[in-house]
What we know:
The chain is mostly helical. It has two helices and no strands. The chain is rod-shaped, with a radius of gyration of 29 Å. This is Phasin family protein.
Amino acid sequence: MSAQINEQFTTFTHQFAAAASRANRLALENAETIFGVQLKTFEKNIEATTAFFGELSEIRDVEAYKTVWPKGLQIAKDNAERVAAAGQEVIGLTLKTNEALGQLAKSQFEAASETAQATVAKATKAAKGK
Length: 130
């Protein structure tokens, strides 16, 4: 009986470790993807802003500032839109990861339930046999 309990505990421990490893891998992949999305957005915004400041630094008269001003506003708008789009993508990625983690937890509960039911059925059958 003790060997059976040890075997069940060992099996459960291995299943738990495998599930924890998969959950950690999913979380890490999500973090890497989110970091990539945010970094790409930051790079695009920096490139656009740097190009605008380069153009702005070459202006020498007031009339030229008037023509560049709308372009600066458009760049600021585009940067804000990129940040908003990246935020929505991050939310979508996080939701997908949470769904995958939920499915992982569900499968673990189902497996544990099946194991428990099999153990109860086996014990009941053994008790009836006596």
